[in-house]
């Protein structure tokens, strides 16, 4: 026998239904209203409390290096620069949700991967041009 994952509970403040004295609502376990586990998941919008906004203003908004990551996408090292772009977008999302430490960490990783991509891309382009002028590579 399988146990049911739904139950009936009395909800305070609801009006009478079907002539019964108490209001009952049948819900499943997956639809229970539970408070979020972490404070960073409270809302998807920006925090509006003065304590949070003053703390954020003191530390400054973390950089996400999105422009640098987009610029690195023009280099011929595609796996690295696409990962840098993903880290940059994740950093921006974390900053908007209020997770400033996570945003800083992801931003630093995006910056590092973007710089590595630009350096390696420049080396590849210089090698390709120098070898093509020597006549070793034909188009």
TrEMBL record:
<protein>
    <submittedName>
        <fullName>TUSC5 protein</fullName>
    </submittedName>
</protein>
<keyword id="KW-0812">Transmembrane</keyword>
<dbReference type="Pfam" id="PF04505">
    <property type="entry name" value="CD225"/>
</dbReference>
<keyword id="KW-0472">Membrane</keyword>
<dbReference type="InterPro" id="IPR007593">
    <property type="entry name" value="CD225/Dispanin_fam"/>
</dbReference>
<keyword id="KW-1133">Transmembrane helix</keyword>
<dbReference type="InterPro" id="IPR051423">
    <property type="entry name" value="CD225/Dispanin"/>
</dbReference>
<dbReference type="GO" id="GO:0016020">
    <property type="term" value="C:membrane"/>
</dbReference>
<feature type="transmembrane region" description="Helical">
    <location>
        <begin position="110"/>
        <end position="131"/>
    </location>
</feature>
<comment type="similarity">
    <text>Belongs to the CD225/Dispanin family.</text>
</comment>
<feature type="transmembrane region" description="Helical">
    <location>
        <begin position="65"/>
        <end position="89"/>
    </location>
</feature>
């Amino acid at each position: 026998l399988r146990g049911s994952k739904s139950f009936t509970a009395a909800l305070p403040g609801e009006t009478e239904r079907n002539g019964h004295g108490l209001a009952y609502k049948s819900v499943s376990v997956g639809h229970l209203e539970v408070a979020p586990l972490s404070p960073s998941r409270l809302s998807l919008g920006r925090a509006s409390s003065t304590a949070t906004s003053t703390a954020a203003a003191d530390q400054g908004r973390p950089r996400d290096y999105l422009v640098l990551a987009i610029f690195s996408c023009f280099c011929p090292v595609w796996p690295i620069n696409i990962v840098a772009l993903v880290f940059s977008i994740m950093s921006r999302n974390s900053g908007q949700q209020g997770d400033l430490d996570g945003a800083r960490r992801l931003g630093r990783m995006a910056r590092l991967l973007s710089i590595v991509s630009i350096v390696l891309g420049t080396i590849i382009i210089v090698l390709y041009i120098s070898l093509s002028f020597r006549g070793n590579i034909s188009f």
